[in-house]
Prior knowledge:
- The protein is an alpha/beta fold.
- It is built from twelve helices and ten strands.
- A hairpin with a 2-residue loop joins β9 and β10.
Amino acid sequence: MSVPRTLARLPSRSRSARPPRHGALAPSDALAAGPDTSHGVILYLEEITVSFDGFRALDSLTLYVQAGELRCLIGPNGAGKTTLMDVVTGKTRPDSGSAWFGQMIDLLAHTEPEIAEAGIGRKFQRPTVFERHTVFENLELAMAGSKSVWRMLVARPSAGERERIDEVLETIGLTARRFEVAGTLSHGEKQWLEIGMLLMQDPQLLLVDEPVAGMTPQETERTAALLTSLAGNRSVVVVEHDMDFVRSIARTVTVLHEGRVLAEGSIDQVQSDPKVIEVYLGE
């Protein structure tokens, strides 16, 4: 039986929304199998607490992300948004709580590289592309697999690899610039290229940090269309301060404050919530 959508979106201190596991796999086998989303949820964060020198960046935070959804995280500076993503990707270990990728992958039992290999990709605010290489070469270098950088640069990609790169180029809207050096791209185009580099690794959960900061209105509109197109086949969690952008893409918005979930719902629901207005949006 799948987890009811309402249950998966509401913090619960009385019981876990993650159904009991049966026939649990060894950690390495669970990683190889990928996330089990048969219950409709791809990410379970329950009672997560993270402290830094006595400051609680996350305070018994509970959050569930549905498989295939596009979720936006908003909140004032210091609300815990970055720390949350650090926990999910293995960069930060929580003091307490549990974090599961699907039913079988215990994120707290794995390293950053293992978590990335399992299917979680993260894009930071500033694009990090290989500026001296072409757009095509950037995507080729990012391709999943055990190939070394040297081999990727000197060997010709297979027909299947070229087809995969062509698909991603079309998705990110850079087909016409495939043989141009990445350093010549605009800020927005570099952001799309980095998203494309993550897509080459075929993540099932994509974490994106402030993707439209510094973009032109036209680039922002195209980014909204890109992220919206990715949802469904994979889950996308976006941290963003631009409320107009959030409104354009999100069906579900989670508001964080002082390391906890303050409110959750549609953009209209959270924008009219008195608590959210008081601590984040202002009167």
